[in-house]
Amino acid sequence: MQKQESKGVPIQSNAEVQALFGQSDAFLKIIEDGFDVRVVLKSDSVAVIGEDITEVNRVTTVLESLLHRIRKGERIQTADVNYVIRASSAGERDILAEPGAESIPVFSKRGVIRPKTAGQKRYVEAIKHNDLVFGIGPAGTGKTYLAMAMAVSALKSGQVSRIILTRPAVEAGERLGFLPGDIADKVHPYLRPLYDALYDMMPADTLDKYIERNVIEVAPIAFMRGRTLNNSFVVLDEAQNATIEQMKMFLTRLGFDSKAVVTGDITQTDLPNHKVSGLADAQEVLSDIKGIQFVYFSKVDVVRHELVQRIVEAYEQASPHNTRRNGMNPSDADSEEG
Fold it and tell me: Each residue of 12-35: pLDDT tens digit?
């Protein structure tokens, strides 16, 4: 019989144990199912026991990270447990060793929104300290949601006087005439996700009032042309679907006392094959410009349903001949085909 390895994690109270293990030991089951270890409660600690010291150390790190969050007053959820497990495998030591990141105050009943992952924490810090930030990565990593939370927080604190949210309506092929209604009705389906996030961050009557007064504006990127956006927090979402010309136009709208955040996933562009993504192009053109920061998310940062993280992994491992799965730009594919 192989020697059993054991490490202990100090516990301060029964309440900590209940928060750590979850209702009906749901969190404990997730941890034990993910590793070949046993977690045993002792009088003043939780012991991690297993034959592989690497596994024992990883589970110890997971438990310590969750306890940091609990002691900071956070309410642990299943997504938090799954993230910390993934992060321990990916070596995200900064988030595992520290308490949760600083909260973002918004208008909703929850009061604050907190970054949940190391990538999200870096993203929020980048937005605080730079006037232009690019958040690039797969679906479900919180790129758009956190950018909008920072915008709402800046409006609430008086740092800006308005919020402008925009995205390309590329699914409509820039030919909106076949859709019923006026221009607002035609583009509304493509802007709906932005409205949904806003309603999650402030009461409906407050949001409706701000929209009516143009304090908050949600519009397709074409509406940005010819404007100068002063004292504003501007978010360009789904930027992988902006052309190079649209991206340049958008970035040159930024005025005094303003911030801009550009979010997207360069592996998911819906542009025609002959069009190069403005987001992919901006990575090359702007990478060395002072005051601009690029923050990259990975599958480890996925905070949606656990299946989303698995889906991202599956597409990463899919056929190398599919240029979109590989994250290649259409121009790259064209050049390889001669």
Answer: 999 999 999 999 999 999 999 989
Strand, coil or helix: 273: coil
Our CA dihedral for 272, 273, 279, 283, rounded to 10 degrees, sits at -170
pLDDT tens for residues 239-268? Answer: 999 999 999 999 999 999 999 999 999 988
* CA 47 to chain centroid: 34
Structural Rg of the chain based on CA atoms: 23
CA distances from 55 to 33, 35, 52 (A): 12, 7, 5
CB 231 within 8 A of CB 160: yes
Task: Identify the DSSP state of 229.
Answer: B
Residue spans of beta strands (DSSP E) within the chain: 5-10, 37-41, 45-50, 104-105, 112-113, 132-136, 162-167, 216-220, 232-236, 259-264, 292-296
Are 159 and 258 in contact, with CB atoms under 8 Å apart? no
Contacts of residue 317, defined as CB under 8 A and 6 or more positions apart, other chains included, come to none
Q: How far is CA 9 from CA 76, 77, 86, 233, in A?
A: 18, 20, 20, 44
Q: What's 266's DSSP letter?
A: G
Alpha-carbon span 210 to 212, nearest angstrom: 5
| Other Cβ atoms within 10 Å of 41 Cβ, number | 14
Phi, psi (deg, nearest 5) at residue 106: -130, -170
Contacts of 102 (CB under 8 A, 6+ apart): 114, 115, 124
Is the distance from CB of 217 to CB of 155 less than 8 angstroms? Answer: no
Q: Which of 218-232, 251-265, 294-308 has the highest mean pLDDT?
A: 251-265
CB distance 160 to 154 below 8 Å = yes
Range from 11-20, 41-50, 97-106 carrying the lowest mean pLDDT: 97-106
Integer distance in angstroms from the first to the last C-alpha of the chain?
Answer: 61
> In degrees to the nearest 10, what's the CA dihedral of 159, 191, 80, 78?
140
State the Cα–Cα distance between residues 165 and 247, nearest whole angstrom: 14
Tokens of 334: 């064209």
Q: Is the pTM of this model over 0.85?
A: no
